[in-house]
Design a protein that fits this description.
Distance between the termini: 83 Å
Radius of gyration: 41 Å
Strand content: under 5%
Structural class: mainly alpha
Helix content: 55-70%
Number of helices: 80
Largest sheet: 2 strands, antiparallel
Strand order of the largest sheet: 1-2
């Protein structure tokens, strides 16, 4: 096949679309594709060579993507590589406009999508340009200031782009990336997220094994150990998981994951966030940062297989542990994740298996033999996931996920999966009362249909179920239950498509050598006829119940409801599928039945009639000759008979019989055209008779008939969709139909029967047009010219006939011709439309009716608009006709889209992902070929814009601005479609639209004005004329929009118009992307383009450009960049002009200011006139304008920032670093090392003089130096090399002078500050980053020039304790501190002399409204700053934050502010942290709750730096361990005493020292707050330290769920809940268990009780880590069993609950010894009760014997409760044992009763199944127990 292709083409294509080979006109395609490809290569190459990015390059890259859509990758490898390289160069042009970048990127992704086509030898792409692109866009420094506008989609596109280029990065890339990003890995900083994000995206994982040393081996150990040691799910952990999943999947068999597998599964289980235990608090961050299931699934499926089988064991454990969560009665927000896991995992395993066994080998590394999945592996996998999937079938989220999972599992192991589904399906079909069961099981059956019908050696008995299923599904065709009906239709259609319905029962006698199964199938196939007839009867019943008269009044609704139309669709498609698959004999019987039904009664034409007509159409479509013989003569004679009567033709209400026959006729003619030719005379007669009926319904049916006849004759389409090529045959000696059950279509043996219009048919079509269309056109023409006046109804009738004639025959009519519209755009590259051949050779000798209709319709439109503008129906019709004249060639785009979607849905529901290679059923393959034909038919890209189109579009525009809104609306939609089709027509149309908005014109009506605005707004999917991304377009539309505010037809009273302007402004702001002013193409692109122009096969056409042209191209490129600058400046000037017009309404002033703010860019400064305007607007009356101005001025200041010189230094040359590194060895460690100590804050070495300041090497960014040092560190050059500070006014440029003058003006400043200290929205205001940026910019660009003026204001504001003045001064101060980054020492010193008193004052005035603002202020001021530069600030904040002056509240606020500053500094201020801790420790016994909480939070931040990460040095910041020691010492009084700890302190500070115990309790409360806040924040939990506090917490935590407890107890409870969820390392487990063991011996039963709840959560959240440690499991088991015999009843019961939980998640198993242990306990003899004398004291203490007996009973009951949804083999016996204790003393009796009632509750649903597991005797006892009187007692 390939060979022939390459000989015809002249090259061997990379991968073309095979479906093209099956089209009826395939011979013409090779020449066509070669011609187009040559054009693309030639013109794309030239466009780049002539440096014409727009329109040339953009236009021809679009052509290339269309080419790929039509032909696939039909070019040779050499071209492929050149295309990729060229596009890579284009995407990475630094100044390229983002919208173009995206368009190139999408094409590049398509080119790289099939990575098997290009290997690493063929192609290598550098990684750095992509990194720079990503960095420039994602971490843009100017976007937040409004200097860059990026579209929201850009992030996703870049991600996919990098993913596609990743396999081709050079082998040195990994090391380079690590050097680049490793220094960013500082876990306390946002850069950690950045580094991990880049690692996840960029690190290549597909290197061949011999290069692994240069690939993942460089980073795997570091990153996996980091992942293993992080305990609290920071947001970057998700990136690691995705990276590991990809690594595992790309290198199966090359990495030993075994040591990590328990950890991996533990973390996966944790990230499902399942609820465990009774009272659970989830740490919120576990929810937000949970793993993405799609990565988890890839990771798991890559771990399966291999020699150790460990992953499968853990996976089974995982599913065993969570199976019960899938039960339909459970529901919660976690359910979606579980379902996703179920749905994706089988798909992922199937994908892997396909890669191992069926995929054609490619250059990618194959999986080594040792790690391939064996048959046993697959069976184990299916077994482990089967149970949850079967439970999930009936889930609350619907059965779709389960159905998809089953579809994939059935491919792997049909014999394991299908039988249980069948067991659920048969009963569901029998019951009538549970329809949801039926819908669920049927949708699952549809998924496994192919596996079932095909049978195969694994599941040979599969096909036997086919007939029983079909027969039992029939009752589902139920008129009363819509969803049941639809799923039944889908079910029947799916199964019947797979099977030819032929009766082969006689083959049993005539053929020998049939197997047993084949014999059974043959005899069963006798039922098929019965099935088809029954189905037809059911359909008739359905139709009878849904006639219009029965359901609603005739007048209300003529149309079908939405539901009915769905049923109609389901009915007709299922029926036609069944008939297609029938043998001729069965068909004949069905045909007679349908014919009788249709002709013996008369149906109304709206609901029932449509359904019946659909069924009749299905019969004629299947076998046209046989069916037409019955239907056509019948209908024709009936119609002629009735219509012979003259009056009938003029009746308003037609005879029902006539209507019905007409409807039936119009549907049955939808068959192959050649069959209709036999009846041509009758059909013509009927058409002539009925087309001019008076009744509208009548003539519309006649039009439909005409349309269907023409379409059948003129289109190309497949004649049949049967599942076997050549139609369904009877069995013969050599052929047995049952062997074709479930057979996929063979792509190269489809034998599609095409209908291609023959000459006769074409003749007949044109005969009909001459006969019927011509007279109507003449009639309309006369009407227009005023010769003959016709009524409106007649015009409408004529238009209807014209439209239907055109729709039917349009594929034979050539497109409209005309002169191209000149001078829209001048480029040097040709842009021409691609003509795609679609099987029709136009006959130019005939009349071109497309042109004729066009010539008649335009004058008619004119006439209608002038004389009868209210004839809306005719206008609607004309709009439709214009739309079709422009675009229609046989199919509509929206119909094509829905068909494409439904094709994909069906393909998904029936595909075989395991074998791949297009093994779809034949009908689907034919459908796909047909879609390919339609796709070619609809390809309209880049059409030339001709004068005809111009005229029609102008007509549409006229309609879009006409009087009636409905007409406008429809015309606008057609207009938008047209605008998207023709090249550059928008440029032609914009001026015309804008004329309506011209304020000079007085003749524009309000409707026209609105219409024009709507035309500019566009619809949601199409083009928005107001915002085309070109300077020439915006320069016209934006000023025009603003000026339209003065138009006489504009009124702000009309809400609809105001809303339109709002929508326009909103859309422009949403969609605007920065438009480039630089359109240059770099040399590197041109080189590749020249190579492409030299390539051969096919030769590029046209060839390379001459030198002359190249020079011209360069000149144009320069000119274009100049033009862009001028247009930009002109647009800004125009907008400013509009603003200076005094009459402009306020609304439009705001609109203009919005537009102006979009004009800020980072590569061109704003013209100074606009700068002046924005600075003046800072004091505008309107708040909205002031806010825009603040943002804009902040942006302008960024534009004016003079660049500070940076020098690249090797870090090891810095003097401070040299001195600290005596030894030359550079360690790999991160964290606090000798070589980064000089970066840290050290009060003895602070720069306190000019000389120190100059010598000190400041490093501003906090992350440098924590991890490894970068190769090159960028530092600021010394002060003398920086731009001059303190410029005089003369040295400034014009823009700077404007700002300088205003801010030096006392009045301006006073007014400005007054506005800033007003309240905007009461109680909603926050610290504003925009204002901060403004002040930062002022102080950065102008040093301290404005301080003298601002100083009095700041002093005044600080003294005012109201919220707004305080916020205003906070914004100024943070801007000041950050803006002073580069000031000289003397200025900085003066600044702090001013600021320190101000801040002290502010902090003493702090209030509940302002403390957050001050916190933000200080945090913002300290962000990314060297702490040594801010030492004044830190020293001031450290002055006794907790003084008690001003009350507890001020203390808490000061701490908050201080914490904000220190947290930003992370690891660089250990000294300050130590000082703070020392200062706080004595104060931990605070009385006030708010201060305690704040101290807790501060402690979290103090200890944040003490992390336990791999390769990290112990920190020099405070450490938790030492702190815990000191705290425990102070808590002694509490830990030693045995009595209950009560919180009996009244909250008031009494003088004099209280006793130690009270102090200890106060201390404990603060410690609790610290434990709570640190649970979710730090990276690693300090388990050993927390363990020492555990005994104390267990003592306090309350047992009952009671809210009335005091703060201390609830806090303790919360702490325990959070600690128990913590992730444990395997070495910490023994420590925890021994601590728990110790506490379990304590005398307080509260502690013993709480241990159990703690244990439940801890074990579940670390399930696999525990399971991998056998000793730990034994210890837990022993602990629980011991507490089961506790003397306290509550503890015993809790132990039983815990035990049943452990059994349920398979942590422990029910084995013989355990069962025996419980039985022997439960048989403990109780001492006889003595008869007590009356009045004697009842002994209440339970004897030890009773406790043991109860423990045994509890143990048995735990076993029973541990399997709530099924009955394991051991259960009946245990139930019998339990029942023996029903009459024991309390508390035993209660336990037994409760257990039995629970058992009854949980097993009630499926009792029929469960009953099977018991013997008859046991059942008797059980029934007796569950319903016996004692049950009610």
């Amino acid at each position: 096949m390939k060979k022939e292709a390459s000989e015809l083409l002249g090259f061997s294509p990379q991968k073309d679309i095979v479906y093209n080979e099956l089209l009826p006109y395939k011979d013409k395609l090779d020449d066509e594709s070669n011609e187009i490809l040559a054009q693309i290569k030639g013109n794309l190459g030239r466009a780049v060579q002539l440096r014409e990015v727009w329109p040339g390059v953009l236009f021809w890259t679009r052509k290339l993507s269309t080419y790929i859509r039509l032909y696939g990758r039909k070019f040779n490898k050499e071209d492929h590589v050149l295309f990729v390289k060229l596009l890579y160069e284009l995407v990475t042009i630094p100044k390229l406009e983002i919208s173009m970048m995206q368009s190139f990127a999408r094409l590049l992704i398509t080119l790289l999508k099939k990575k098997e086509l290009l290997s690493r030898e063929d192609l290598e792409l550098p990684w750095r340009p992509l990194y720079e692109l990503q960095d420039r866009i994602l971490y843009s420094k100017t976007e937040h200031l409004g200097l860059n506008w990026f579209p929201s989609s850009v992030e996703a596109v870049l991600k996919v782009l990098i993913k596609s280029c990743r396999p081709y990065f050079p082998e040195s890339a990994t090391q380079e990336m690590l050097d680049e990003w490793k220094p960013l890995m500082c876990p306390f900083d946002v850069t950690m997220q950045k580094a991990m994000g880049y690692f996840e995206l960029f690190l290549p994982t597909t290197l061949p094994p011999e290069l692994h040393d240069k690939g993942f081996k460089l980073w795997f150990d570091d990153l996996i150990s980091l992942w293993v040691s992080v305990q609290n799910l920071p947001s970057w952990e998700v990136n690691l998981v995705s990276l590991f999943a990809r690594l595992a999947n790309d290198n199966i068999g090359y990495i030993d994951w075994d040591p990590y597998i328990p950890k991996i599964f533990t973390r996966i289980l944790r990230s499902l966030n399942l609820p465990v235990g009774s009272s659970q608090m989830l740490v919120s961050r576990y929810l937000t940062n949970a793993y993405d299931i799609s990565y988890v699934v890839i990771w798991i499926s890559a771990l399966l297989g291999g020699p150790s089988k460990q992953a499968q064991t853990q996976l089974s454990g995982l599913f065993n542990g969570i199976t019960s969560f899938f039960h339909p009665s459970n529901h919660g927000r976690w359910l979606m994740k579980l379902m996703k896991l179920l749905q994706r995992l089988p798909a992922s395993v199937v994908k892997r298996l396909h890669r191992e066994r069926y995929r054609t080998p490619t250059w990618l590394t194959p999986i080594p033999e040792s790690h391939l999945l064996s048959e046993q592996d697959i069976t184990d996998f299916v077994e482990s996931i089967k149970q949850p999937v079967l439970l999930a079938m009936f889930s609350k989220t619907g059965s779709l996920d389960a159905a998809q999972a089953l579809q994939n599992l059935a491919l792997l192991r049909p014999e394991l999966v299908i039988p249980p589904v069948l067991e659920k399906t048969y009963p569901a079909m029998e019951t009538l009362i549970e329809p949801h069961q039926l819908t669920a099981t049927l949708s699952c059956m549809i998924g496994v249909a192919r596996s079932l019908v095909a049978g195969g050696q694994r599941f040979p008995e599969g096909p036997k179920h086919m007939l029983p299923l079909l027969m039992r599904a029939l009752p589902g065709v139920d008129p009363n239950d819509f969803s049941k009906c639809m799923i039944t239709f889908q079910f029947l259609a799916t199964f019947v498509t797979l099977v030819p319905l032929v009766d082969c029962s006689s083959a049993i006698h005539s053929r020998n050598g049939l197997t047993q199964v084949e014999k059974e199938l043959c005899s069963a196939s006798a039922e098929f006829e019965h099935f088809v007839l029954q189905f037809v009867d059911r359909c008739f019943a359905l139709i009878d119940t849904s006639t219009l008269e029965q359901t609603r009044e005739e007048m209300e609704m003529e149309k079908m409801t939405h539901l009915e139309s769905l049923v109609e669709l389901g009915l007709s498609s299922t029926f036609s599928t069944i008939l297609t698959q029938c043998s001729m004999e069965i068909f004949q019987v069905a045909l007679d039945k349908v014919f009788n039904f249709a002709t013996t009664s008369i149906f109304e034409t709206h609901v029932a009639g449509r359904m019946v007509a659909d069924m009749c159409r299905a019969t004629t479509k299947c076998h046209p000759a046989e069916a037409l013989k019955l239907f056509l003569p019948h209908c024709c004679s009936a119609i002629l008979q009735i219509a012979a009567n003259e009056e009938v033709l003029n009746e308003e209400e037609l005879d029902k019989e006539l209507m019905w026959n007409l409807q039936l006729l119009s549907e049955v003619v939808r068959v192959d055209g050649d069959q209709l030719l036999l009846y041509r005379s009758q059909l013509v007669q009927i058409l002539q008779l009925t087309l001019h009926l008076k009744c509208k319904q009548g003539y519309s049916l006649a039009c439909k008939l005409l349309y269907h006849i023409l379409r059948s004759m003129s289109l190309i389409y497949p004649r049949e969709y049967c599942s076997i090529p050549g139609g369904i045959q009877q069995h013969t000696d050599t052929y047995l139909p049952i062997q074709d059950w479930g057979r996929p279509g063979e792509l190269w043996n489809l034998e599609i029967q095409w209908h291609v219009p023959s000459t006769e048919e074409t003749e007949f079509v044109f005969y009909l047009l001459d006969l019927l269309l011509k007279p109507e056109l003449q009639r309309l023409q006369k009407h227009t010219e005023g010769q003959q006046d016709i009524s409106r109804d007649d015009v409408l009738q004529s238009l209807s006939i014209v439209h239907n004639c055109f729709l039917g025959a349009s594929s034979l009519l050539p497109p409209l011709h005309g002169e191209p519209v000149p001078q829209l755009i001048n480029g040097m590259v040709q842009l021409y439309e691609t003509k795609v051949y679609t099987g029709v050779d136009y006959d130019m000798s005939r009349e071109n009716y497309r042109e004729d209709i066009c010539k008649v319709i335009r004058p008619l439109l004119n006439h209608t608009l002038e004389h009868s503008e209210d004839d809306i129906k005719s206008l609607f019709s004309i709009i439709k006709i214009i739309n079709d004249l422009l675009h229609f060639k046989g199919s509509h785009k929206n119909e094509f889209d829905t068909r494409w979607k439904s094709f994909n849905l069906i393909k998904k529901s029936m595909e075989n992902r395991l074998h791949g290679s297009k093994q779809h059923i034949r009908a689907l393959l034919i459908d796909r070929v047909m879609l390919q034909h339609e796709l070619r038919n609809l390809t309209m890209e880049g059409c030339s814009y001709r004068s005809v189109h111009q005229d029609l579009i102008n007509d549409l525009l006229r309609l879009s601005t006409s009087r009636y809104s409905q007409v406008r609306c429809r015309a606008q939609n057609v207009l938008f479609t047209a605008l998207g089709t023709y090249n550059f027509c928008c440029r032609d149309i914009i001026p015309v639209v804008l004329k309506y908005l011209d304020p000079e014109r007085t003749d524009v009506t309000q409707q026209q004005f609105k219409g024009a605005l709507y035309c500019l707004l566009g619809n949601h999917s199409g083009i928005c004329l107001a915002n085309l991304q070109y300077w020439d377009c915006i320069a016209l539309t934006w000023p025009a929009l603003v000026r339209s505010g003065m138009s006489p037809s504009m009124s702000l009273e009309k809400t609809s118009i105001v809303r339109l302007f709002d929508d326009l402004a909103d859309k422009i702001h949403r969609q605007y992307e920065t438009i480039s002013v630089n359109f240059s193409i770099p040399e590197s692109c041109v080189e590749i383009a020249v190579k492409m122009l030299k390539s051969s096969s096919p030769e590029p056409n046209p060839g390379a450009a001459s030198e002359q042209e190249e020079l011209e191209g360069r000149k144009r490129e320069e000119q274009k960049n100049k033009d862009a600058m001028q247009k930009y400046e002109k647009l800004v000037a125009d907008l400013l002009d509009c603003l200076h017009d005094r009459n402009i309404p306020w609304k439009f002033e705001q609109l203009t200011i919005g537009f102006l703010s979009l004009m800020l860019r980072d590569d061109l400064p704003l013209p100074s006139s606009a700068v002046l305007f924005f600075v003046e607007s800072l004091n505008h009356d309107s708040l909205l304008v002031r806010n825009v101005a603040i943002s804009a001025v902040a942006g302008i200041l960024k534009q004016l920032k003079r660049p500070h010189k940076k020098v690249a230094v090797s870090p090891y040359d810095i003097s401070e670093l040299k001195t600290s590194l005596q030894s030359p060895v550079v360690s790999l460690l991160t964290g606090d090392r000798p070589d980064n100590q000089w970066l840290q804050y050290d009060s003895s070495r602070l720069p306190r003089s000019q000389r120190d300041w100059d010598e000190c090497c400041f490093i501003e960014k906090t992350h440098w130096g924590y991890s490894t040092w970068p190769r090159k560190l960028m530092l600021y050059a010394p002060l003398e090399e920086q731009p001059k500070q303190g410029q005089t006014r003369e040295e400034m440029n014009e823009r700077e002078q404007i700002i300088y003058d205003h801010f030096s003006d006392q009045l301006f400043i006073d007014q400005f500050i007054q506005y800033l200290s007003l309240e905007d929205r009461k109680g909603k205001d926050k610290f504003s980053p925009r204002r901060f940026c403004l002040f930062k910019g002022l102080f950065r660009n102008f040093d301290d020039a404005f301080l003298p003026l601002l100083k009095p204001h700041m002093e005044r504001l600080v003294a005012d304790s109201h919220e707004s003045p305080q916020r205003c001064v906070a914004e100024i101060i943070s801007g000041l501190i950050r803006g002073s980054k580069h000031w000289s020492y003397s200025k900085v010193e003066k600044l702090w002399a001013l600021l320190c008193p101000l801040l002290r004052k502010a902090l003493s005035n702090i209030t509940i409204e302002t403390y957050i603002d001050w916190g933000t202020c200080i945090a913002t001021a300290c962000e990314s700053r060297d702490p040594r530069k801010l030492h004044w600030l830190f020293e001031m904040l450290m002055e006794s934050p907790v003084t008690g002056e001003g009350g507890s509240f001020v203390d808490a606020c000061r701490l908050y502010v201080l914490q904000g500053g220190l947290a930003q500094q992370e690891w660089r201020v250990p000294e300050l942290l130590h000082r703070l801790l020392q200062y706080l420790e004595p104060k931990l016994t605070q009385v006030y709750k708010n201060v305690r909480e704040r101290i807790g939070s501060v402690l979290t931040y103090i200890f944040m730096i003490d992390v336990d990460l791999p390769y990290t040095q112990p920190t020099t910041s405070p450490r938790i361990r030492e702190f815990t020691e000191r705290v425990l010492a102070r808590l002694k009084p509490l830990t030693e005493g045995e009595e209950e700890i009560q919180n009996h302190i009244v909250e008031e500070n009494m003088e004099g020292d209280q006793d130690e115990r009270t102090q200890a309790i106060k201390l404990l409360k603060t410690v609790l707050k610290w434990l709570m806040t640190s649970a979710g924040r730090s990276f690693s939990s300090s388990v050993p330290e927390q363990l020492r506090l555990l005994p104390l917490l267990f003592k306090i935590a309350p047992v009952e769920n009671d809210d009335s407890y005091d703060e201390m107890k609830t806090d303790a409870k919360t702490c325990l809940s959070l600690m128990s969820q913590g992730l444990l390392y395997s070495d910490q487990i023994p420590q925890v268990l021994s601590a728990l063991e110790e506490i379990s011996r304590s005398s307080s039963w509260h502690a013993r009780y709480t241990i159990l709840t703690y244990l439940q959560i801890m074990v579940f959240y670390n399930l696999f880590t525990f399971l991998s440690d056998a000793k730990a499991v034994c210890d837990v088991r022993a602990l629980v069993l011991r507490l089961l015999e506790d003397e306290q009843l509550e503890v015993r019961e809790m132990a039983a609950t815990t035990l049943s939980g452990f059994l349920q998640c398979n942590f422990l198993s029910i084995d013989e010894p355990m069962q025996a242990h419980f039985e022997s306990l439960s048989k403990t003899r109780l001492p006889k009760r003595k008869r007590r004398e009356l009045g004697s004291v009842v002994d209440t203490i339970p004897s030890a014997d009773l406790v043991r007996r109860h423990a045994g009973v509890l143990g048995l009951s735990a076993c029973i409760l541990s399997s709530p949804y099924d009955v394991p083999t051991w259960m009946p016996q245990i139930l019998m044992d339990l029942s023996a204790h029903l009459n024991d003393t309390q508390p035993i009796e209660m336990t037994v009763k409760k257990t039995l009632s629970d058992f009854r509750r949980t097993h009630h649903d499926n009792w029929q199944e469960h009953k099977q597991k018991f013997t008859d005797d046991q059942l008797l006892v059980l029934t007796d127990l569950l319903v016996s009187p004692c049950y009610y007692a």
